[in-house]
Amino acid sequence: MKFGLRRELPILLAMTIPFLYLKLIWNSLPMKVPIHWDINGEADNWTTKTGLLLTISSVLLFSYVPWLLLQRFKNQNWIQQLGEKFYHLRLIFSVFFSVICFYIIHSALNQSTNINFIVFLIGCLVAVIGNYTYSLKPNYFLGIRTPWTLKNELVWKKTHRFSSRLMVIFGILIMFLGLFQKQYNFINFLIIAFIMICAPILFSFITYKQIPKQ
Question: Residue 53 pLDDT > 80, yes or no?
Fold first, then answer.
């Protein structure tokens, strides 16, 4: 999959929006702005306006560059097999992190944030990514990479189908938590994250053990 400016344009435009917003409000920002908030939405780390710019730049580069590097590796047949879905994944992550950066800037301007909104965005990302998880082919970079999925292609396929459904369900649940819970509940989020991480690992192990050994 070759790099093409025309295909990259939507991704690059999404990444540009936070910078345009930051430029627009630059003079309205105080000299010292919050850059991180605790689980109660209270600022616990501060930086300068330049520090905010550097943070936003780092986050957006992190959401963009690794995907480009991944395409440069040789013998990545699974990327070719994904086809347009690989590009869609790149676009989804770029839009997600652009929205996060936009909200960080907005929160810095208003000196406050709403953790539930971040929770809602995470839920959206999990649910959307879940729709693509089932399409992942065996590889060493993306997906549920356990010793059992990497040993057996059938285990990989079944595990990713299971994980896909799980991510969609729990992604929607996280979205509801973000929308309807009055105050951010770290325990609820932690339980959901624990299940999403551990369930596919356990499923891949059980599935591998059930496959007849030749």
Answer: yes
